[in-house]
Amino acid sequence: MGPTIKDVAKKAKVSVATVSRVLNNQPGYSEKTKKKVLQVIKEMGYQPNAIARGLINKRTQTIGVLFPSVSSLFSSKVLHGIEHIAHERDHSVIVCNTDTDGKRTMKYLQVLGEKQVDGIIFTSEVLTEDYYRVLKAMNIPVILVSTFSLRYPFPYVKVDDKHAAYHATEYLIKQGHRKIAMISGTEGDEIAGTPRIEGYREALRDYGIPFQENLFVFGDFGYRSGCAAMKKLLERGEEFTAVFAASDEMATGALSVAYQHGIKVPDQLSIIGYDNLQIAEMSVPPLTTVAQPLFEMGKLAAEMLLTMIETGVTVESRIMPHSIIERQTVAKPL
Amino acid sequence: MGPTIKDVAKKAKVSVATVSRVLNNQPGYSEKTKKKVLQVIKEMGYQPNAIARGLINKRTQTIGVLFPSVSSLFSSKVLHGIEHIAHERDHSVIVCNTDTDGKRTMKYLQVLGEKQVDGIIFTSEVLTEDYYRVLKAMNIPVILVSTFSLRYPFPYVKVDDKHAAYHATEYLIKQGHRKIAMISGTEGDEIAGTPRIEGYREALRDYGIPFQENLFVFGDFGYRSGCAAMKKLLERGEEFTAVFAASDEMATGALSVAYQHGIKVPDQLSIIGYDNLQIAEMSVPPLTTVAQPLFEMGKLAAEMLLTMIETGVTVESRIMPHSIIERQTVAKPL
DNA sequence: CTGAAAGCGCTTACAG
DNA sequence: CTGAAAGCGCTTACAG
Lengths: 334, 334
Hints:
The structure is a homodimer. By secondary structure, chain A is an alpha/beta fold. Chain A contains 13 helices and 12 strands. The first copy, chain A, folds into 3 domains: 5-48, Orthogonal Bundle (434 Repressor (Amino-terminal Domain)); 61-159 and 294-321, Rossmann fold; 161-292, Response regulator (Rossmann fold). In chain A, the strands form 2 sheets. The first copy, chain A, has a 6-stranded parallel β-sheet, with helices on both faces. Chain A starts with a helix and ends in a 9-residue tail after the last strand. The mean pLDDT of chain A is 94. Chains A and B meet through helix 4, helix 5, strand 2, helix 6 and helix 11 of A and helix 4, helix 5, strand 2, helix 6 and helix 11 of B. Chain A binds a DNA duplex through residues 4-6, 14-18, 20-21, 23-24, 26-30, 33, 48-49, 51-58.
């Protein structure tokens, strides 16, 4: 271990109280002692012990973040944004990978509590009553990202999924498409599943296009499920000129399968995704998609959390703007 | 704040020492008191304060990880592996995003020191003397991932880049290619740049193929630089039937440009990448590439670090196996 | 089997 | 302007 505040005090011939004061820029010492102390600190290479500080200040300058999967393209962008602001405002971030597993999540929540984090960001998953209870009991600020809860009053930052899905579908319609298939996310997912389906259906309805079971299929947001869904759609034999996939990964899967079947995108088939992950730009051809400002969402969530930590006042939820990134997978139907 | 060990002790009518003992499964109490204490703990919803524990134990059960960019596909995989093992072995991980910025990195190192992390994993960047000095001064275990240092004796886990590049090039040669271009990583990068160039050149040499300046171009590992490099190669007019790109992102860029120029892959041009990121599987056509076991590397690094933390003995560096993932971007030349 | 006490490295009234 | 002392929530000899 390095030198402690005691060592510094002794060497500088002052009390630890004085050293502590200059360390924290508090008043109560002459310019001369300040200089002396600062010099000794430098000489000894003294570093304050944040753990000891945390114990007494009841603040650890650390926040916890929970993701279903840290390595997903989605989570890593959001994490990047969170980390950026946290660092700017002198906080560290502990990452937790829940695997969408209830037990694991509860365990993380407990650990985060024991480690006395100052706040928590909970992302992309349904806030169960269990989670809510322990979060509530921890009595620290919590921000939800890409998820929300009607029942539990944590502020959130997210895109309006239903609205965004409506726009994506409408965009296709405005290009002239009427036979529009949808590859949805996980069945029953109330966060990124159902709302996007609703957006799709409402756009269809508003433009007088009947919803067809045959043109609708569930995936699980992942690439492989996109491939499978596309195959299913093709096998059903129902004609369609465009598909709206509820994630870029699924859209890319659909793209691959189209390619394998010799279907030209966008000449014979238009595809629009959702997320605007890096792969959207890198796919061949580049994917037209709905963009969520993930990095910004991470930043905003961290800002909201830190504001709550610092001021104690509850912050307002925020709906972030989505947008349609026009690239090369959508064209007018033949 | 929740109840402390004192509250528990009072309510259970024992001393805090006893509570501490049952908490830590140490001997020294009757079955009866144990039951009593456990019951009170449950009743009060008592959670130990890890900060107080850390202060006295000189162990925080926390490790720090430094990445150039947390949101890169590369870093997030490694992070996932690290987090997985850390959690399994009761440690938390603090992530740091250095932006490959010296000042920022030094700041993180300082914070990690103040927060008394038990160990550090340093990834994908050159270990400068400055970094080494403060790391050394912290006197805690350090593991390097995807980087290494001849001068400074920290154990590392990485793939043999030169060897892997040799294999990739050799693979192309064995398919019958003789005119093989290379899109390299960043010029002067001693970690993932130069070694891969050397591997490429040695394979060429071993198979009696002269190295041609015209078929070599630098990128910076990113997608856009891959696009630019491919354009440059095409503009130079020197014929080639295959390209080895030192990253999947650059390979994907090359793929896009080939597509834009109406060059069929793999019929007219073969491409092999490096990394085996998710996009390799998702590209059209799927990218043949060199795989590094990123998740496993993260896991192994965490295991090595935790072993050093727990036993105090220095662990051996590890070269991880690379492999060539054959997909659909390489064929025999016309 | 059990408890009183010291101590981890700090901060913060309090007193001077 | 400065220091002695209490205390944050724990663990761990030490003594019984």
